[in-house]
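Please check the following.

. . .
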Amino acid sequence: MGVWIKLFLSCLFILSAIFLWRLTDSPVTSIIVFNIVIIYFALWSNFSIIYKITTKLKFSFVFSITYVLTAGVGNAIADNVPISRIEYMTQYASNIVILLAPVIISSFYNIIFLKKNSTWLRAAIYSSMAVMLSVPTTLGIVLTVIGMVVVAGVKHQLSWMTIKKLFLTLVVILSLSSVFIFPFLQQRTANNWANLPNNPDLFGADFNTFFNRLFGLGDALSLTIIIFTVWLVLSKKFNSTYKFLGISYLASLLFLYSNLFPWYLVNPALSGALQMTYRWNFLPALFGSLYVAFAVNDLIKVKKSVLPIVYLSLLYLAFNAMMLNTFAKKFHLDGFNNLTNQLILPTKENIRTDGLFNVNNSSVQIMLENPDLALDDYRATGQTKKFKNVYIDSLVKFDEKTYIDKTSVDGNNFYIRDIPNKISKVQAPITYLEGFVAFDEKGKKLPVYKDADGFVSISPRGAKSIRLEYHKTLLHQASILTFVFSWIVLVVFWIIYIWKDYIHADTVNSRTGI
C-alpha cells in the first residue's frame, strides 16, 4: 500500500499541506492554515458557479455558505462534524471533494439541461481534481452526472451539440488527471487486490441517527429546512420548487442511510469503491442548501433581516454546537479539563477507534515511525487473515517456507538477502504492481511475476541476494507527460484569456473616457 500511495495517488492539494508542514515544522498549524485556504476556495468556487448560472447575488451567497457550513461528514455520519472542519484525516481527501461537488454537478447541469457551454472547462478542471483526490466520492458525482444524462435523454433534451461538449469535457478530464487515472487502471487490472477496506456492508449509519442529530440541534441543515418550511407555509410561499427540493432532500437521506434502497444488491461491487455511504453525503447537502437559498431569496422580501439571521445562526451551530462540542467529547484540548489532559501516545487501538490522544509533533512522529499503527486488513483477494502479518513483519518466503529478518530497505530499493541454495521461488512481502524489477548481486535481471497469493515473487536463479526496484511503466511515463502538457496548455489558455479580457476592458475605457 505504501508503494501504491507514494507512486500513484496524486493528491496535489494535500501535497501543499505537506509543504506547509515542512516549512513550519508544525503539523497542527499547517493543517489549520490549509483548512482555511480550502474552505475559502470552496466558498468562492460554489458561489462563482451558482452566480454564473443564476446571476443572483444573494441566492448564490446563501447557497455557498449554507453548503460549506452544513455538508457534514466525518469518520462516521453520527459525529456530524461539518465539512468545513476537515480534521478527520482518514476522510481528508473525500471531504475536500465533497466541498467541491456542487461546482462539478452544477457545471454539468448547465451543459446538459440549460444548453449553455460556458461551464465545460470548469467542469473538467474540478472533475480532474476530484478524481485525483478521492475515487469513492468522485464515483458518486460521476453516477449523478450519468443520471442527469439519462434523464435528459429520456426527455429528448440531449442534443448532438451537448453530446459533443460532454465528450470534449471527458477528454479534458482524462488529460488533466492522466497522471493518476491511467496508472491506476493499469495497476487495478494487473493484480487481484481486494475491495479495500473489506467492509461487511455499505451503510454509514442507521436512519435513527438523523433524528438523534436533529433533536440534539446537531443537524443545522435539517433544522433550518424545517423552520423555513413552516415559515413558507404560513407566508403562502410554499410552491412546487420547495416540494421537489424537500422530497429530494428526504429521499437522498433515506437512500444513503436507510433500508429503502437494496444496498445488498450492489454491495459486492461497491463495498470497495464506495466503502461507506456517507461519502456521498453531498446529495442531501446539495438539495438542502438549494432549499435554504430559495427560501431566503423569497422570505427576504417579507423580512429583510432573514439573511443575517440565517447566516449568524448557521455560523453559531457550525462552530459551537457541532465543532467545539464534538472536539470537547473526542479530543483533549489545552485548557479544557487540564486535570486529565495528559499526553496520551498514539496506539493501534486509539488510532483505529478515534480514541483520545494529543496531536503534536511528538505524537505525529510516533505515527510516522510506526506506520503499522493504523494498518487495516488490506489483503489481496483470496488471502487469509494470516497474510496481514506478512506485510507488518516483512516476512519472506523461500519455496513456501517463511523467514524473518531477511529484508532491508536502502532508499527506494528493497533487498532480500541470505537466500538458500537451490531455491526456485522467493516471495516478497509486497503486493504485486506492474513495474517491479529484480536484480541479483551481480546486477543481472531476474524474472518477476505475481504469484497465486497476489505477492511479488522472483525466480532467484542461484542468487544469494535480490534487489527489488520499481520502474515506472511506459503508460505511467506517458501519463506524466500528458498531465504536464495538459496543465501547461490550460495555464497558457488562462493567461491569454485574462490578457484578452484586460485589453478589451482597456479599449472600452479608452473609448468611453473612463
Observations:
- The CA atoms of residues 105 and 142 lie 9 Å apart.
- The first helix runs from residue 2 to 8.
- DSSP finds 19 helices and ten strands in the chain.
- The first strand starts at residue 396 and ends at 398.
